[in-house]
Amino acid sequence: MKLHIHDTLKREKIEFVPKNPARVTLYVCGPTVYSYAHIGNARPVVVFDVLFRLLRQIYGEASVVYARNITDVDDKINKAAMDEGVPIDVITNRFAEIYNADMATLGALSPTLAPRVTHNMDAIVKQIGDIVANGHAYAAEGHVLFDVESFKAYGVLSNRSLDDMIAGARVEVAPYKRNPQDFVLWKPSKPGEPAWESPWGAGRPGWHIECSAMIEANLGLPIDIHGGGHDLIFPHHENEIAQGVCAQHAHGHDAEYARYWMHNGFLDFGKEKMSKSLGNVKLVHDLIKDVPGEVLRLALLSAHYRGPLDWTPELVSQCRARLDGLYGALRKVQDVDVRDVVVPDAILEALCDDLNTPRALAELSALAKAVETAESDTARSMAKSQLLKAGNLLGLLQGDADAWFKAGADDDLTAFVEKLLAERVTARAEKNWPEADRIRKAIDDLGIVVMDGPGGATWRVKVPVGDED
Ligand SMILES: [Zn+2]
Question: What pTM was estimated for this model as a whole?
Fold first, then answer.
């Protein structure tokens, strides 16, 4: 099956052909680790995790190298460290660990590589030196600046001309710049800030250079796919191309940086914009206290990655209910054997069509239905196996079905609820409706939701989904 993806650079959906199928490379811009990630930051993580899983499925696990960087040099990090009176690595190690744990809760696999800026200073200084040597950057007053006018293809990704950019730009005008569009590759650190040695004086890299340098050093140029949020197209990714191309010996000729570019859309919070000043920032770290990470993952995959995603309490509730349905199907076949099966074609086809996760999720529901309607043990076993295999490719449904419903209940509560449910079955069999209702109310008062179905009643602990506001 052929994978087609929408390439931001070519502005169309095209077939993905890796340069070397034995080593497929993927890079996604990662977090700046000075605080918690909000749910919008988690969308690229989950989207590109599905891409990572799909590439591994197509090319083999050992043939895919996925790098997601950790930005551990930044003004906000310096400020946080200053505020606490600690070295920056106390802040960055703390929040990198929290980030990794939170993203794991969303079912994201660890990337193959997680390069950090502070571990790649030599590579960054080397790449800046190469760009200078190739005549595309200049040093001035302790800074090194990329000479935008020297690179004719500048603007190719964001589809802007230099004139447009000059007209509409919010660029920093500085006396040491030849052109207001020129951007910083290296700058001097302020007194008291961390600094690293370089041929241009002690200082630190600009933000854009870290990605292109870490890509060159850790993955090699060109890479196959570069991903990130839509907001990174300009200037970040535009600048990465300029650096990545101009650092190469063949700059200006056939040098390639990233062969395909993929960008995800934003989360939309209705009329309200999410902002710190409005106090409605939804941090992943907080959301996962109330909502299973798998629900958030499903919600993040419920819309096509390129479009906006309306993030509402209703969406979260619907996704919880959807997972109840899927795990409900699995719970009915808990004793059925799992076989070694291939990923169902319908799921692969959906994902190979530019990661069409809404279609893949609809196919997942169809597979769950097949589990419920299978008429023989063999058919049930096949259907269950296919559902689990498909779920695995999406990073869903790998938990225990019983545990899914009982998450949050200890053994005593579980035993008590099961006893009440058994009593209700008896009351119903005796047509003692008032007693059956009384028991149901008693269960409800325990914070338990009972779901009656054709195979009997199932239950779960109520989760305050949707009213986290
Ligand atoms: Zn980046």
Answer: 0.91
